[in-house]
Every structure is written in structure tokens, then in C-alpha cells.
Amino acid sequence: MSLIEIKDLYKIYGEGQENEVRALDGVSLSIDYGEFVAIVGASGSGKSTMMNILGCLDVPTRGTYLLDDISIAERTERELAEIRSYKISFIFQGYNLIPSLSVWQNVALPMAYQGVPLAERHERAVEALDKMGIADRAEARPMVLSGGQQQRVAIARAIATRSPIIMADEPTGALDSKTGRQVLDILRALHRDGTTVILITHDNGIAAKAKRIVRLQDGRIIEDRPNEPDETVEINQNM
After folding, report:
1. Model's pTM, two decimal places?
2. Could you read off the pLDDT of 123-135 as tens digits, one per residue?
3. Residue 103: which of 162, 159, 166, 145 has the closest Cα?
4. Residue 197, class by beta-carbon neighbours within 10 Å (0-12 exposed, 13-18 middle, 19+ buried)?
């Protein structure tokens, strides 16, 4: 049984209207436990829509989506939120840190929705920050950190929840090349530890770091192949 299984998946906006848009147009895809998959495509290819549906942030217009053998289609927002809290952690390009909370409180916040006791939330948050090499900033506020440090906090938040899936949406887009490579090295280390990593990107250099590449165009998968990560490929940053 695959961790993720989608079949004949459609996401259609304005269905039946003259301006109908098929953001996903009959997509089928399986992702096994522990894979490191890059979903790559240009703007408008459907990759963001794919991320939203795979991440249980949205539901398809029609088609099948099984996440760990749980059917996702036609779920309520409350049901989707509960599934997300236990199954998926997100790393966003914009970090999504709360300025009024300390670094460790930002990391611990998703665990509150899991019902983890406060003492354990603090312990796991500091442990995750230590893995990211930033435990000494646990009491700081996010705005005093560099972009690279904020992204490390965002990764710590993702791993502290101990979700089986980490979904990273353009996680290096706001970083310089050196820090971007460090972030990708962290994601690869998480993959080696058994976490399923799904990387959403427009950058072929970043996609080349994954073990499998799924390429989208006009809402359809045009390529799905295994990949041997190329250490010589440079990351193209739009700084």
C-alpha cells in the first residue's frame, strides 16, 4: 500500500463555463513511504494546486485521493485540519513564523493542535532547534533572525511534530545559494531517516536533488522518473 495514491484527479475552476480552468486534469500518482519526490513545473503548471490537495489544504473536484489509506475527497475543513495535524508538516518559502511568539513557541505551536502537553512541546521544540543548529536562539523573536535562520526554525517546526510527511514549497526561494544548499541537505537527511519528503519547485536544479522527479505541465504529469541526485548541479536562486 502506498502512502499517497491519487487516481484520475481533477481540480476545475468554473467547471462548465466559458472560462473553465483545469488546474489538474486527470492526474494519477503514487508515492511510497520514505520517498523523496520533487514536483516541478513552471508557473501555471498545476504544482501549487497539487501541493494544496496532497497537503489536505484543498479537495479535488473529482477523482480519488487516499492518504495512508484514508479517503480525502469530500472531507470537511475540520476533518482536513485534523488529518494535516497528524500526517503532514509544511515548510513554506515565506517561513510563516508568528512575530509575537518566541522561536521555540513558533516551533511548538503545531503540537498544541495535536494535544501534546506543554512540557513535552517545549522539550521537542528545543530538540528540533538543536538539530537545526539554532537552539541558542530559542527565546529570540523571529524578526531578529536572518532569512536562513528563520528557514531553519520553519524546518524545526516541521520535524518537531514528527509527521510522516514533510511538504516543502519552494523552501530555498528566499535564500542565498549557500543557505539554500544547506536547507536541501537537511531535507535529504530527513529523507534518509525515513521521512517522506515532497518538494514543490519551479527550479530544475533544486528538483535534481530529489530521488524522483514528477514534472507537471498544464495540469498534467508529463514526466515521472527516478533520479540519481546530482551533487554538481547548482541551485539557481532569484535573489
Report:
1. 0.89
2. 999 999 998 889 9
3. 145
4. buried
